[in-house]
Every structure is written in structure tokens, then in C-alpha cells.
Please model this.
Amino acid sequence: RYGGGEAVFNIENEVELRESQGLKVRELTKAQMLAEENKAMIIQKWHEHFD
Model:
């Protein structure tokens, strides 16, 4: 969530926008960049939580 909107990304292979609502293109670009930069950590934390 950011600024009242949200975005969902697939990160299994490439970081790819799955859906978004209420975000401007600039905000989506920044969100995707952050997801790409932090992909390994996101996956690690996902496994720690769900495994």
C-alpha cells in the first residue's frame, strides 16, 4: 500500500505487476523498482513465514 493505493507483484521469476489500484504510473514504477531491489529478501521472509 502506498498513498491510498496498492499494487500486487509476482516475483517468482521476473518482477511483474499483477494488479494495481489507485496508484499513478510514477508510484507503480517506484514500487516495482523497490520490489526488484528487495526480491531476495521478500522471498526469504515469505519462506520464513509460511514454511
Observations:
- The longest helix spans residues 25-37.
